[in-house]
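Input.
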Amino acid sequence: MTKDVMVTIAGFHSLEENGDTIEMVHIGEYYQRNGTHYLLFEERMEGMSEPVKNRVKFREHYLEVQKRGPVTVNMVFEKGKSQSSTYAIPFGSFLMETHTTEVSIREEEGRIEARAEYALEINGVYCARSEIRVVVQPKESFRL
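Output.
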C-alpha cells in the first residue's frame, strides 16, 4: 500500500431493518508498523473553522478511531468488549458506549478493509445496532 491513500469511512446505524448510512471519503496518509495499520487524515466539518484530525488504527480483532480538534473522541472496538468514551463537540459532550460483536480486517492487493459491528448507547440509552467500515486504497487507483 502506498503512503498517499483515499480513505472511505462508512457508518451504518439501525434500530429496525432499515437504517441510515453515512459515507465520507478523505485523502490521507497510510503506514504500517509492527503489524498495525495507521491512517491519518483531516476532516472539514460544516460550521467549524479548523479541521478535525483523525487517526485510525487497526489490526486483527481491533479498530480504533481517534478525533482531535473541535471534535474529540477515542473509540475502541475489540470483539466481545465494551468501551466508554466521551464525544465532545463545540456545543457540548455526551457519553458513548460501544458493545463490539465483531471486528474484521480484509487485505487484498491495493485495498484494505476494516469493519466493526457494535451496539451503540448514548448517555446510557440504547440507540442502534451499528457498523463502521474503513476502506483504504492507493490514491491513484481509487474506485468506489
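The beta strands are 4-14, 19-33, 36-43, 52-59, 62-68, 73-78, 82-89, 92-108, 111-122, 125-138.
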